[in-house]
Amino acid sequence: MQYVKSIGLNSNQQIGRGFNHPYDIAFSENNRIYVLNRMYPQSTDGIRVQICDFDDEWYGEFGHGPGDTNDKFLVPVCIDFNDEEKLYVTDESHHQIKIFDKDGSFLEAWGRNTSKITSLEAPSGICFDSDGNALVVQQFKGTVLRISNDGNILQTFGEPGSEPGELNLPWGICTDTEDNIYVADWRNDRIQKFDSDGKFIQNFGEPGSGEGQLSRPSSVAVADDGRVIVADWGNERVQIFDKNGSFQTILQGEATLSKWASEWLDVNQDELNARHTADLAIKTLPSHLNTPYHKASQTEHIFWGPVSVKIDKTQLLYVTEHSRHRIQIFDLK
Amino acid sequence: MATHDRKLAAHLARRAGFGATPDELDYYESMAYEDLVDHFLDRESIDHVTDDMIYRRHPNIHAQLTHNPMHWAYRMLTTNSPLEEKISLFWHGIFATAEPKINNFGAINNQITMFRDKGLEKFDDILIELSKDPAMIVWLDNQTNHKNEINENYGREILELFSMGVGNYTEQDIKECARAFTGWTIKNSEYMALMGNKDSIWPYGRIFWHFEYDETDHDGGEKTFLGETGNFNGDDIIRIICKQEATAQFVSRHIYNYFVADEVPVPQWGHVPPKDPDAINKLSQAYRESDYSIREMLRFLFNSDFFKQSRFTRIKSPAEFIVNTLRYTNEFNVIDGADSTVYQVMEESGFMGQKLTNPPSVEGWHTGEEWITSGSLVDRVNFASKYITDLANPGVEKMVARVGESINAETSPTELVDKCIAILGELEVSPDTYDSLMTIAEHAHSVDGNFTSKPEPIITKAFQIISSSKEFQLC
Questions:
Q1: Which domains can be identified in chain A, with CATH numbers?
Q2: How far is A5 from chain B (nearest CA, A)?
C-alpha cells in the first residue's frame, strides 16, 4: 500500500481554498474532487462544498451555509454522486438530502420541510446501488433507506440494536461490485454487510484497538478486488480487511506537505525555519498521553480524525481527516 | 450528625458539585451524610456525555480549534461525579493559565484533564504534574529557562502563587528554584511556541504539546533552597516546598475560600488574617497527617462543623452559577451538531466575569463579592430566568411536573411557595423574596381558588422569581 500524496491546508476562512473540518468527498466523472467542508456552529458561513482535483487545482465552491432554505447546509455529513452526475449531500440537522448538479446549482431537496420523504430523520452515509438508487443511512432509526432517483422510498432495512443486522448510530455506507452493501455500524464498533436485497450477510470487527478491532468506524469503502477499507475513526487509523472480513493491515497515515501547505510555508519563512529545526515524528509520549487521540493530536503526519474513506476509479484511496484538514491518498494497487 | 438531612445534602451538593436536581437529592437524602461525603470523594463509576458523541457532532472540539472550553463544559454539565469538575475549577483558579497567550486549546484542555485526574491527589504530585504541564510551561515561559540563562518566571510563581505565598521565601530561593527547573520544557519548543505566539493553525491544524526533560539544558549544580542544600532538580524543590508550614496554611486557606466561605483576595492574605483561623489550622493538620492529600483534606472539611454551618456564605462564581443553573435544565445529554448553546454559555460566563481558560492574570480571579457588579448581576438574573423558566428544557419540565403533581385543591399559597423553593435545591430565601413569591401565589390562588387547574404558569413564575433572587447567587 503506497502513500502517494496529500491534498489540503487548514483554513479558517469562510471562502476560498483550504479546508476546515472536511467530512467527506465525492468524485465527478471528470475526476474532480468535491470536498464537504463541515466547519462548526460558531462559523457556519463557511459550510460549503469545495472543488479541487488530484493535481491540487482548486476550482471553486458552492452551497454556503447556514440557513433553513433547502439549498443551504446546517450540519452536512456525507456526499456522493449518482450516475447522472447529481451530487447528493446529507444534512443531519435539516433532516434532508440536498441535490445539486456538478456545477453546484441546487436542484431539489428531500426530507423534512420538502414534499418528498418527509419522514427522513438524521441521514448520515449515502451511496448508490447499480440501479442508481440512493442508499441512505438514518442514524437514529438504525435503518438504511433505498430511494429511487425520483425520491420515493423503495425499501427500508436494518433496525436499531446490537444483534446481527441491527445498527447503532450507523454512519458511512458503500457498495461493492456485486452490489453488496456495507455499513459502518458506528456504536457497535463493526462493519455490517448486507446483500443487494438488504439481507444481512455478516459482520466483522469488534470493540478494541488491536488488529481487526474497531473503535467507532465512520466510513467504509470496497476496492475492486474486494478489499474492505474502514475508517477506524476512534482509533485514529484506517484498517484494511480482505473480502471475507479478515484483517489485513493498518494504515496509520504518513502525510507530507501538500502543494497548498508548501505554498503557505513559502510565504511564512519564520514558521518554515522553525519547522526545519523540529522533530515532528513523535516517537514516545508521556504515559498519560498514550492514546490514539493524543498520539494523533501530537503527531502531524499521522491520521487525526480519519472520517471518510473513498476510492476513485483508478483505485486510489482517499482518506479525509477532519482534524488535520487534509486528504491523504494511497495507491491500492 | 443526623443522617437523611436533605438540606445538608443539598449544601454538600452545592459545594462539592454544582447543586443537585430533585432526583439527585432524593438519592443523596437516602444516604447517611458521612457516606454521602465518601460518595462525592471516592467515585468509582463515572458517567457523562461521552467524548465520541461530542466529537462526532462537533469536530471543532475534537481538533480543539475553537477558543472556548466547550469540552470541559459538556463534562461539567453532564457528569455524575461533579467533584472532579469542581476540583478542576478550583485548581484552574489557582494555577491560572490563559489560553490567549499560548493559543493551543489542546494544551489547555489537557491541563484541565490533568486537574480532573490528579486534582484530589497529593499536593506534591499535583505540583509535579503542574510543573510538567505544557500549557503551564509556555504560559510562564519555562521553555526559555535555560541552564546558562535562567528565566525566573515559573520559579517565582510556584512559590508566590501556587504554594507558599509572599513573605515565606527569599529572592535567592526564587533563583535557586528556577535553576532546578531548567530543562523542564516541551517537545519542539521553538516551533510550538512560535505557532502559539502567531496563533498559527497552519498548515494542518494545531499540534498539541507534551513535556520533555532536556538533561543537556538542566543545571545540575548545587543549590540552597529554603535552608536545604543539594543538587536539586524540580521534584526535589517540590518536596521541600510541600513540607513547609506556609504551604499547609496556603493550601488550606485556598480550600477554605473555595469550599467553605469567601475570603479576601489572595494578595491581601499577608496582612489580613483568615476568617476562621481555627479551621485553617485544622485543615493544615489534615494536610500534614494525610501526607498532603487533597482528598483527605476535603473528607475532613466536608465532615466538619464549620463546613456544615457555612450554608449560603459563598457567592457562586459565574461558571458555578451557569453550570448550576443548566444542570437543572438537563438539556445537554443529547448533542446536536447545529447547537452552539454550550459555546454561548461559556462565552456568557466570560461576560459575567469569568471566562474559563482565560483568567485575567496569573493570580486568577478575585472571588466573593468581586463577582458581582451591576452589569454581571443583570446578566446572571437574565441567564437564570431564561433557562429555568423554559418548559422546553426537560429538566425544567420535570421539576414543574413534580411540583404540579404534589399539589391538590387544598394546597395553600404558602405550601406552593415552599415546594418551589425546595425543588430548586432547598434554597433559603430572604423575607423580601418570600413576600414576592407569596404575592404572586396568593394572586393566582385568588383567581381560581386553587392551583390545580393550570399550575404551570404560577410554578414557572415562582421559578423566575427564585432564580432572579440574590439568594440564588449564593451557595
A1: 2-331 (2.120.10.30)
A2: 14
